[in-house]
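Appendix B. Raw example, untouched.
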Amino acid sequence: MGILAKPLGFLLSWLYELIGNYGIALIIVTVIVKLCLYPVYAKSIKSTIKMTEVQPKMQEIQQKYAKDKALMNEKIAELYKEEGASMYGGCLPMIVQMIVIMGLFALLRNPMAYIDSDNMLFAIHEPFLWIQDLAQPDKWILPIMAAAATFIATLMSQNTTAGANAQQTKMMNSMMKYFFPIMILWMARSYPAGLAIYWFGSQLIQIFYN
């Protein structure tokens, strides 16, 4: 993920030189990244809503061609094409966001590998609010905030897209709603506080998106 970490490192370094506060620079990077990802997110929501609209027609096809799976799949593919729907459209934002997260993780775990500025060597260890060192994990407060924001953002996202593949995704949505925040809590206790700040900030913005 060095390819992505390098430009993110340049942006972070430039903002730090401009602002002089590493924590605030991280927050601004978060806002910039989320704004850049918004078109992808908006496209995903439209795709999910479109899937909701085609559900009745798809169920009719499934009932009509239940004995001919090949023809049923062909008709469903034709329906998707006619309606401009995609069953994978909702996955795109998560994939893109995870790529960004991996780039940021590489950057914040070893920032000097991707940032040329010597000033950043000290900046990454600056305190921010109650956090004594942004390069070290915050064991509880920030992880709990990140997990709570993740839970709310996931819940609101599921409410926004309620009805799409309701029967097929009910169990998955329930698992994501609870498992994902717990996973974020566990991970945030071990990775740098700077990365936890990004995740909390991104989920907070996501809540306003919804």
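End of appendix B.
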